[in-house]
Amino acid sequence: MTLQAPTSVVMIRPHAFRSNPQTRADNAFQSALPLTDGEIAQRARAEFDTAVAKMRQAGITVHVFDDTGTDTPDSVFPNNWFSTHAGGHVAVYPMFAENRRRERRWDVIDLLKRDYRVQDVIDYSGLEPDGLALEGTGAMVLDHAERVAYVARSNRADPVLLERFCTHFGFEPVVFDAVDATGLPVYHTNVLMGIGTAYALAGLPLIPDAARRATVAARLAEPGRTVIELTGDQIANFAGNAIELTGTDGQVLVLSARALACLRPDQVEIISRSASLLPLDLPTIETAGGSARCMIAGVHLARR
């Protein structure tokens, strides 16, 4: 395992999945399906199960929790409400949408404490009544090796909370504006950026300020990584929403089949120098505005 690519993850199996009406206003990646809620949920569950099976086959440890509730449509995206960090640290985050706050579940934290070395859990969720949100590794793309938190400004990433997180966990914040083709702020940083051990995927054209764009690119490349610039169209197809993990045969880049299909051969070749690619079929889950990365909460903790 590298600092950036854990061997274990947590995933939440959805039973009442649907495109969340409370997040539709600022998540331009959401879309609708001409199906009943029951049909959508069933398809999402099947996609989830196939994804978990493929990841386990690659040698990744997947801790699966079932969400049997009916009022948590986005529960399949647990990376937004908690994160884990080397040294035994866990963070729990405040969420922007009211119905997403119900996704937090302490049995997940209990499993982490039981199976991994956890020193402390810092819970920021009590700041929700003050209107503050910092949606975990959706709002922040973390470079665990270089200790940098990349953050696109949005209502999901409060600057006061970001500063507090970076102070507590020892990260340097690199904050920038990013907008989609219509000029709307990108709602989560992890749809436009994914950091691997030897490469980084980055939707640099979505950063309108040229100087800031150059700064972000240089900071990503600083430790010797190859920066793979993604186009706006590739970002719209979730090419940035990928996560590097460690499987039986080394590093694996987990992304959706849709994301892989829009990558150019030269981009795939760069990734393949240090990681194999593991595409997951997620057409239903992606209608909620997130893809493979959003479904996966990496476990950056030492096993007991």
From TrEMBL:
Entries under Gene3D superfamilies matching the protein: L-arginine/glycine Amidinotransferase, Chain A (3.75.10.10)
Superkingdom of origin organism: Bacteria
InterPro entries: Amdntrnsf_FN0238
SUPFAM superfamilies: Pentein
Coiled-coil parts of chain: none
Name of protein: Amidinotransferase
Organism per entry: Sedimentitalea nanhaiensis
